[in-house]
């Protein structure tokens, strides 16, 4: 295909590497720490943070290896196809992950809630009325106000949609070999993501302080924070990926034909975008 | 769909990176491995270790159940054993064992030099021991290991001690491992087949793993979601599974079984694949109905997504939902039947010999079908309501898991170990292992059908005295069956690693496939130049 | 040796228990039908396979044929099983639909699963208002413990006998509503063909109509913690007249037992009463020595809550906390007051606020 695959092996197989097993060890520390931490043991927190930090170090080193192999031209066109398949399937797995939480929202809202309020359940919960955003049938939950689509979520929707466009502009620029233009639009994308996260954080603060809407606010609070929080985490991941890509663009890593890292991160970003649209409708509007 | 054979011609340059060629030795070979054969070995060793660990737990369970009353342990410890036995066997033994087979055989069968992502492959493996450590260590934390059953039903799971959190995190890690492993397998199969190896020419084992990997990617994240919600319910005050806050314990079950049912097919489809390789080899006749096997496997996979609530018939769903799940579940018998019939038709008018792999394969078909039929009986909702959570269910799933998945793994071991070790196993000992396992398996688990029909609930540390006789038989069988597996390790596996009769490249005259074109033992590097399949 | 239990499993029982309701009977024959069909298919398929194994082997000189597909037979063995499966589903559908029809019941009983006993409330029909708890009657001296041999011979109803049996009249449709207090349990009587999960915070229902007078036994059928094996279910099906008698005595008994929440008690009286409440409800988790189970169930001996303000402890007992169930529905004001007072004055505990009166509990309920 390009000059890259000319000297590349038929299929590059990396030699022995210490990163996988070290990653296993650091994840063990992370999870061990987390188990202790959630049970109120203080060293658990330190162990958890240490584990996460070390895992990130391992990943940094690992990706460093992969990038230099890529730059050394080891990745033939066939390896590139492998990357494409893997990224697609990875995104599919993420879709299913979100599916679990969307499913929970659907089930709790459309199946459990009407049940809890039906005639038979009057035996247990005589006063419960099926209205989404309730304080639970047992009355053990403090009153709270629900989220509305205006103004922040709508602004955020606009931000993310725009970021999709800027990212596509950057991609086109990359394909035309205009590095500066790529970098600028990529930077704009990351910036939009960051602003999105800023608004999101603001919204959370507002929820806690103004609406009294918390993680502990019954099933409404549980699903709201789980879905938006999990999404926010993904936006952050996506933004980190794009930042690495931006760094590599500035370093001059990519060519007009050979830039899977860019595309992979872009797919991920678009995926996060689409999930947001789902959230926007299901969580804020309905 | 695939991009095979488009660009292999012009890049046959020999500028391979040097370090991919030297074969590492000593600890580096294993700890830092990127070679699919080494990683395959690691998986197999790990899985067998976990089988032993889970087996010892099973034997402790069986000891307590030898008689009514509490002899050796408190019920809370008994429940921990049951739970951990299930988790260890499912996530630690059966699944990694199949991944080990996939690592070894898929590249060899499709003519690829290695897995698509060799380094990530090692990561997938090296996530397993940490998960196992986390899981096993939970026995020693205050409150002990989780005792909520391998299904970890809420809200019992919210009552557990820190052992539950460790199990949750262990499952998170294993889930990540499975997802990475599956991405690797799918990518390898879709992208790295040798020129000429079209999808419909691929060996059945690769087909079944392709579909299994798809199932894994689709459902492992859902399990991760379910246990994440359990975690937040336990520690962060959410109410997903708590009615007081508007949640629903049954919702946990829906999410869990959306994972759980495909999971059981994840544990059987690769077994189907192994059997579909072995039966034609020893019948010396091509697999009957190759295409319909592929379609049947796919149908099973697709149907597996819409049957999950057959595990929940007693939770009290609306009658329409019960009917739907009953019909959908019963439907799965049709494609599974196609597989059974195809195997029989492959044997029909063959020229069969019965070396150990074939014995285990035939044993598999025979005993798995019994388990399939009890599954079908359970699918009939009114009957399931009688039998749900009794030993009938325990009997059903050990017929499909032990005599199904485990026997197929044994069959595959005997079939391919000459390729792995370079030595032939001892045929007499293999036969002893087979007959011993088959008979003792049935002594262990057949009586459980009667126990279940008569109403003995599962997960019981103690039981009404009327159930004593069959429980005694089951316990005796279990110890015998366990000993047969120790025999397998000591008399078959270990001698065969150390030496024995040298194996030819193709030890089975009826076997077909690229794996038999490389020498035995398979050299460290194979198919660096892809073979051409006609 | 043990004999068949009446209304429970028989020794060496190899099939479903003898049905006592029409539904159970239908299930019984459904199962027989399935078994026969499956056996026939099994024998058919495997006689072909074993014939082939015997005749088409290399050692008898059979040469391998080369055929490897036939669309006709493949369609055939897809369609035929499909039809068989439909044949199986039809009678099953009929039974299932009637199992779910809980309408027009004569008596409605609510049962509440709790760790580890069953509570019953007669909600509608004759006996309305009756309510009681039902716990395992088999003494631990028959069960034994690790390292401790049982000191008493096991009876025929070992683990299947309770202190308060559920009474229902024969030939009446009983609608059973299940729910739970803590975790999921499952109410099951095999002879009735009934098994219904009891889900905390939700209600589910099922029904039965027994044709034969007698005692019927079942076991909790959903893992519910450590005493899962020790919360059986016993239903005593009696004639109409006997049922009336039972209702009468039960009502009188309840009236006699009802506590007046405004009565003022002494510490010793409450302690005595509380010890019983503790033994019946709390000991399984918090243990007789009050030390709990480290990591799973907190100790009460030396506990800050037990020795601290009584209002906080009362709130926990009423409303539950994490693994601790809420007791407000199961225990009376007097019982709660008694057990709190007991814990505050027992073991090494010497709480400053050492007595709680039923009236205070009643007030805290609001
Ligand atoms: C390898 C694992 C595996 C496999 C392959 C299966 C296969 C099947 N299972 Fe099983 N099952 C489990 C593992 C598995 N199961 C486990 C682990 C549990 C318990 C989980 C727990 O609660 O802990 C369980 C529980 C379980 C239940 C719930 C029981 C309960 O808890 O109440 C049900 C109910 O429908 C069920 C049904 C089936 C059916 C219909 C099949 C079908 O796929 C079987 C199909 C096969 C055949 C039918 C035989 C061959 C066919 C022919 C020869 C064709 C001709 C036949 C006819 C036309 C009838 N299974
Ligand atoms: C996935 C595979 C799998 C496998 C292979 C097995 C294998 C076995 N299982 Fe189990 N089992 C499950 C999956 C599996 N199981 C699941 C999912 C559950 C449900 C859990 C739940 O309810 O949550 C279950 C539950 C279960 C129960 C019900 C427990 C209960 O309800 O309380 C029982 C009871 O008899 C049992 C028994 C056995 C036995 C005797 C074996 C035997 O096949 C094991 C054979 C033994 C060995 C292979 C060990 C060999 C080792 C030795 C002999 C020791 C030697 C020691 C030294 C050398 C130090 N299993
Ligand atoms: Cu209650 Cu099991
Ligand atoms: Cu299933």
UniProtKB/TrEMBL annotation, chain A:
Domain Heme-copper oxidase subunit III family profile: 7-286
Entry's Gene Ontology BP terms: aerobic electron transport chain
Protein name: cytochrome-c oxidase
Keyword Zinc in annotation: no
InterPro entries assigned to the protein according to its UniProt record, in alphabetical order: Cyt_c/ubiquinol_Oxase_su3, Cyt_c_oxase_su3_dom, Cyt_c_oxidase-like_su3, Cyt_c_oxidase_su3-like_sf, Cyt_c_oxidase_su3_a-hlx
Organism: Undibacterium parvum
Compartment annotation: Cell membrane; Membrane
Lineage, top ranks: Bacteria, Pseudomonadati, Pseudomonadota, Betaproteobacteria, Burkholderiales
Membrane topology: Multi-pass membrane protein
Listed PROSITE patterns: COX3
One annotated Gene Ontology cellular component of this protein: plasma membrane
UniProt-listed CDD domains: Cyt_c_Oxidase_III
Keywords attached to this entry: Membrane, Translocase, Transmembrane, Transmembrane helix
Family affiliation: Belongs to the cytochrome c oxidase subunit 3 family.
Residue ranges of the TM segments: 20-38, 45-63, 83-107, 183-202, 222-247, 267-285
GO molecular function per UniProt: cytochrome-c oxidase activity
UniProt KW Transmembrane helix keyword: yes
Highest taxon of source: Bacteria
Principal place of residence: membrane
Annotated EC: 7.1.1.9
From TrEMBL, chain B:
Membrane topology qualifier: Multi-pass membrane protein
Enzyme class at the top of the EC tree: translocase
One GO cellular component term noted in the UniProt record for this chain: respiratory chain complex IV
GO function terms (MF aspect): cytochrome-c oxidase activity; heme binding; metal ion binding; oxidoreductase activity
Pathway entry: Energy metabolism; oxidative phosphorylation
Record field: catalytic activity: 4 Fe(II)-[cytochrome c] + O2 + 8 H(+)(in) = 4 Fe(III)-[cytochrome c] + 2 H2O + 4 H(+)(out)
Pfam annotation, one family: COX1
Cytochrome oxidase subunit I profile domain span: 21-534
InterPro entries reported for this sequence: Cyt_c_oxase-like_su1_dom, Cyt_c_oxase-like_su1_sf, Cyt_C_Oxase_1, Cyt_c_Oxase_su1_BS, Cyt_c_oxase_su1_dom, Cyt_c_oxidase_su1_bac
Gene Ontology BP annotations: electron transport coupled proton transport; oxidative phosphorylation; respiratory electron transport chain
Family listed: Belongs to the heme-copper respiratory oxidase family.
Function description: Cytochrome c oxidase is the component of the respiratory chain that catalyzes the reduction of oxygen to water. Subunits 1-3 form the functional core of the enzyme complex. CO I is the catalytic subunit of the enzyme. Electrons originating in cytochrome c are transferred via the copper A center of subunit 2 and heme A of subunit 1 to the bimetallic center formed by heme A3 and copper B.
PANTHER family assigned: CYTOCHROME C OXIDASE SUBUNIT 1
Record's protein name: Cytochrome c oxidase subunit 1
Protein source organism: Undibacterium parvum
